[in-house]
Amino acid sequence: MTKTLFICSMKRIALFASGSGSNAEKIAQYFADDADVEISLVLSNNPKAGVIERMRQLHIPVLLFDRQTFYETERITNILQKQSIDLIVLAGFMWLMPGGLVRAFPDKIINIHPALLPKFGGKGMYGHFVHEAVVANGETESGITIHYVNERYDEGAPIFQATCILSPTDTPDDVARKVQQLEHEHYPRVVASVLQP
Fold first, then answer.
1. Which of 1, 35, 62, 156 could pair with 147 in a Cys bridge, judged by C-beta atoms 3.0 to 4.6 Å apart?
2. Is 113 designated active site?
3. pLDDT at 91
4. Which of 113, 131, 147, 186 is catalytic?
């Protein structure tokens, strides 16, 4: 009788972040005790980003890069391929992903957007600009959309949405707090579900 040996290879995640890094930190903490998942690398285009210190405290390596390297060379794609990255997770990353990188990792790049796409998406719609637009439009709800990434802002296939109810008196800061709570609650879990074969 032949025995089949199942080998569970470690899943490797690369995170891209441009800002404070609270979502990156939540994802890293979520997988900290998971022997089957590793946050291999965090990449940032912002040398002053708060994510750098957060990742230093978690002993996760950070790679900084500039616009020319990102858009005019294959260096970032080559690094990710050499590290055998299984999933790229954008956690507050502000630049559009270059076509070569998207094609090198088909259906392996996901992003979180702080609104219920297709509303309030597209170029220039990020962070506080989204929440200001939601309030200005008199929306009664907002939320998050986790989606696959393609070569256009916020147009990749949706994976998951979660909603929060808004009050007529909510300011953009109030909306931001409600949305961030959803981000921290759901993004790590959805990342885990996307990693499953």
1. 156
2. yes
3. 96
4. 113
DSSP type of residue 26: H
Name the average pLDDT for the chain: 94
- Rounded to two decimals, the pTM is 0.93
Distant-in-sequence, close-in-space partners of 89: CB < 8 Å, separation ≥ 6: 13, 14, 15, 16, 27, 109, 110, 111, 191
| Nearest C-alpha neighbor of 144 from the set 91, 67, 73, 76 | 91
C-alpha 178/C-alpha 173 separation (Å) is 9
Domains of the chain: 11-195 (3.40.50.170)
pLDDT tens by residue, 14-23 = 999 999 999 9
Helices (H), 74-169: 75-82, 99-104, 127-136
Distance CA 72, CA 162 (A): 36
